[in-house]
Amino acid sequence: MSTLRRLWRSGTGRFGILVVGLIALAALVSLVWTPFDPASVDARSRWFGPSWPHLLGTDGNGRDILSLLMAGAQTTVVVAVGAGVVASLLGIALATLGALTARWVRESIAVLVDILVAFPVLIIAMMITAVWGGSLAVVIWSVGIGFGVTIARVTRPELRRVLHSDFVLAGRASGLTPAQNLLRHLLPNVAPVFIVQLSWGMAVAVLAEAGLSYLGFGAPLTQPSWGVLLSDLQAYIAVHPLAVVWPGLAITVTVLGLNLLGDALRDAADPTLAERTPQARTHVPGVVA
């Protein structure tokens, strides 16, 4: 609870919580209700400006833009969470193998990670989608793998640093197994670094989905997506510029909110920041006699 209170007191943390919470709420609500049917076409309502009952206006097919944004939030949440899970599992696995195993295994993992990290995440996603076709599953796996490697590269040296700390050595002396030491001592102390990388990866996942959908490699055209909506509206930007603002603004604010929330979580969870509490305390477990 103290971490949540510190997070809420932070301006960036509060902004991130509100943005991410609003997107998640919109995605949940759109499962059961939207102001209008996102797939409903009404030629008599084409290119309405923001007014009642179309609060954000309509597109060239007469579809309500607010309803499309709410339905598209489902795609955004699925991609962000899915890519985050894949990146977390892969990143932690590679970092653990690269930090806690035999020397030849560590060096092999380090070389593999250095090779894979040289390829930009979006390039990897475009190559995979070009071969396997466009779908949300391909976007999730490609972005998750790309950022899992990045997480491993950043987390591995932190694990090596914490591995030689006094409290880890004390844990070994008390009889903890390597797995117990990893879960109780190592991962909590590298969590701040991991959180920042994970939030960045989820933000890039949102951008990747929107960009790939914009190019026709992401979500199917029948599935609401902010990237697909942006692609549909950009052809009319000279005539109806306001309509293009809404999906672009949704993508921008979501990415900004994820990044700021990650930074605030790092500051709130980092046990080494003295300014957090009057007397800073590091994660030092008690030694079992």
UniProtKB/TrEMBL annotation:
<feature type="transmembrane region" description="Helical">
    <location>
        <begin position="12"/>
        <end position="33"/>
    </location>
</feature>
<feature type="transmembrane region" description="Helical">
    <location>
        <begin position="193"/>
        <end position="217"/>
    </location>
</feature>
<feature type="transmembrane region" description="Helical">
    <location>
        <begin position="109"/>
        <end position="132"/>
    </location>
</feature>
<dbReference type="InterPro" id="IPR050366">
    <property type="entry name" value="BP-dependent_transpt_permease"/>
</dbReference>
<dbReference type="InterPro" id="IPR035906">
    <property type="entry name" value="MetI-like_sf"/>
</dbReference>
<comment type="similarity">
    <text>Belongs to the binding-protein-dependent transport system permease family.</text>
</comment>
<keyword id="KW-1003">Cell membrane</keyword>
<keyword id="KW-0813">Transport</keyword>
<feature type="transmembrane region" description="Helical">
    <location>
        <begin position="237"/>
        <end position="261"/>
    </location>
</feature>
<feature type="transmembrane region" description="Helical">
    <location>
        <begin position="138"/>
        <end position="155"/>
    </location>
</feature>
<dbReference type="InterPro" id="IPR000515">
    <property type="entry name" value="MetI-like"/>
</dbReference>
<keyword id="KW-0472">Membrane</keyword>
<dbReference type="Pfam" id="PF00528">
    <property type="entry name" value="BPD_transp_1"/>
</dbReference>
<feature type="transmembrane region" description="Helical">
    <location>
        <begin position="77"/>
        <end position="97"/>
    </location>
</feature>
<keyword id="KW-0812">Transmembrane</keyword>
<protein>
    <submittedName>
        <fullName>ABC transporter permease</fullName>
    </submittedName>
</protein>
<keyword id="KW-1133">Transmembrane helix</keyword>
<feature type="domain" description="ABC transmembrane type-1">
    <location>
        <begin position="73"/>
        <end position="262"/>
    </location>
</feature>
